[in-house]
Amino acid sequence: MQSTHRNLPQLLGDARRWFEEGLLAAMEAGGAAPVSPTQAQLFAVLDDEGTTVSELARRMGVTRQTAHQAVHGLIPAGLLEQVPDPASARQRLIRRTPDGERAHRQAGVILERLEEQLAERIGRGTVDALRTALEAQWGQPPSPGSD
Prior knowledge:
The chain contains six helices and two strands; from the N terminus they run H-H-H-H-E-E-H-H. By secondary structure, the protein is mainly alpha-helical. Helix 1 (8-29) packs across helix 5 (98-122), helix 2 crosses helix 3 (53-60) and helix 3 (53-60) crosses helix 4. It is globular.
């Protein structure tokens, strides 16, 4: 018989997908252009003043090519733009356009609603405890051989 015990990273992944699916469905129902989960994640890690594609890739845990594809799917949609990086003549920053800022604010409201719906389902205390645990400083992952 196969074990049904799922490890914590699997459970966290499922929780993230729950929020992503709810967010993307609500955004699309509200008339927003459809975006992929990768594109939605890009919006979440983008600095207000702009971020390089390399830094976006690092924050998202994806390849530079994947981040580049996500960015270049959102530029024609009018949600992102590329601007020169004042700190480096060779770099370009990716930042939200005014339409992208509106979509980002709308996503924040939807995520708050989703969190409230989750609290109705599993209890406010459980959601608060989950938030506290995830906001705690975990430190660096243990190195091999450490206890």
